Automatic annotation (TrEMBL), chain A:
Entry's localization field: Cell membrane
Chain segments annotated as transmembrane: 9-27, 63-89, 109-137, 186-209, 221-239
UniProt entry tagged with the keyword Nucleotide-binding: no
Protein name: ABC transporter permease
InterPro entries assigned: MetI-like, MetI-like_sf
Topology versus the membrane: Multi-pass membrane protein
Keywords in alphabetical order: Cell membrane, Membrane, Transmembrane, Transmembrane helix, Transport
Family classification: Belongs to the binding-protein-dependent transport system permease family.
Main location group: membrane
Pfam family, one: BPD_transp_1
Source organism, top-level taxon: Bacteria
Keyword Cell inner membrane found: no
Entries under PANTHER family matching the protein: ABC TRANSPORTER PERMEASE PROTEIN MJ0413-RELATED, ALKANE SULFONATE ABC TRANSPORTER-RELATED, MEMBRANE SUBUNIT
UniProt source species: Arthrobacter hankyongi
Amino acid sequence: MKPANILKALLYAVGLPAVLVLIWWAATLGAKNFFVPTPGTLLSTFAETWFGERIVSDVLPSLGRLVVGVVAAIVLGIVAGLLIGSVKWLRALTEPVLEFFRAVPPPVLVPVLMLLMGITDSMKVVVIISGCIWPVLLNTIEGVRAIDPVLSDSSHTYGITGAARVRYLVLPSAGPQIMAGVRQCLSIGLILMVISEMFASSSGLGFTIVQFQRSFAIPEMWSGIVILGLIGVAMSFIFQFTERRILRWYHGLREVENAV
Amino acid sequence: MQSETTDKTTMPAGSPAPAGRTLPEGQAMLSVRNLKKVYQTDGGPIEAVRNLTFDLRAGELACLVGPSGSGKTTLLKCISGLMAPTEGQVLLDGAVVSGPPKKMAVVFQEYGRSLFPWMRVRENVELPLKNQGVPKAERDKLVDEALEAVGLSHVPMSYPWQLSGGMQQRVAIARAVAYQPEVLLMDEPFAAVDAQTRADLEDLIRTVWKKLGVTVLFVTHDIDESVYLGQRVIILSSSPTVIQEDLVIDLPEERDQLNTRALPRFTELRHHVYEQIQLAKQGHRPAAAH
Ligand SMILES: Nc1ncnc2c1ncn2[C@@H]1O[C@H](COP(=O)(O)OP(=O)(O)OP(=O)(O)O)[C@@H](O)[C@H]1O
Ligand SMILES: [Mg+2]
């Protein structure tokens, strides 16, 4: 990219946020609403609240559970999806059950899992997995089912079967669908990370934010919400970067198809 | 070469179904025996192929022509073990085909969908060899030769979807050639290429066929092409499909786009095939098939 273009892209990226902060700043100029801090207050509170002990005691453990839960959900979802998608009878057998489990809202599992597993890290990770796995699993199944029959026949006649088939045909072919599932999985993961810490927890981002709210530490509470937003944005960037690399062929193909 | 004994006139008189040329047991590379295929669909059964019997000698080049919908693709899928026939069987080197045989390559009609869009041209051609554990050096040589032969050595790093339809089809052909099969099945492989490339590719197929001694079954719509390419043309009737005629092409072995096509015998043969296909289209069926 040319420097001028980079500058333009940067302006577009930060333009709207800047305007929003400006509006926020103007709206809170004279007002003394206890529940809405000014940008300045929030900024100083943010630094005070999070750049210290809390990074180690709350932020990093939460992030750790989020990463473990999301990665486990993605791996499990893809593996199970490949299996279920490839085996016809397995699909017929599992479809109704999957529909049922997918329909259960994961937050209601928190109390149940608390009883079964106690208030532990693994319980929180399981909550994250139980909600995140569905989009990956169902998308993978769909992706595997949608493999082009001609391509499948081609692979078959050239003796590409078993593990080679999964590696060279099934995974790449289902890739676009799988990545769509992963995208959903990430946002659900963040929500569940917070929720899993809101009940009877003693640390973590979700716990801390609820704690601030209960003790009327309003600017601190807002700063926690900002942290969550930033984590979400970071995850989305990492995802887009990875997706671009893995699915370069797919975006190119789409471009060619759309140009016709 | 084509002797009188292999002519269809040696077919036993009054055979139950019209048959293509068959060989004594143990001499055929590929045998199709009373093959019937009925698709079971939601709209009821569809009889794509009624009864086909013919043999291909090892190293033979046969063309298969027939009206659209006469079950040519269906036949190739049964031969390549991708689909089980409803009745009858396919034998490769004496063994019944029940799944894709190792030493067979197929070039599909839907060329655009038979290449891996996530792999570059070179990787597409290389994958079957890699999967078979062919050493890297030999693999590279085979891939280079195959790409060179189809005139695509300049685009090894492109993705298939960046190429024109005809180029994609040539990649699929290169992949089959690099694989060095004993039997090569091709389903209207030149449908998407321009006339000049088509002529070049026809000669390429004959060169590869002679060089590798591969047995080729070549499906085409193009009558001239079938006569020019084949040692033999198998003409299918319209659906429900039987063999309309199994014709020996007694043109000289050395073929040449200009001279061969100018031979009076070429014109005679192409007239004959044309007439048979017209008859097939009008629903005329060989006597024994009624
Ligand atoms: N998967 C399928 N399910 C049901 N019917 C099918 C299927 N594939 C082919 N048929 C039917 O079988 C018949 C033969 O089809 P096939 O594709 O083998 O013909 P073809 O000779 O290859 O035609 P073309 O020259 O147009 O490629 C057609 O009537 C077609 O509708
Ligand atoms: Mg066809």
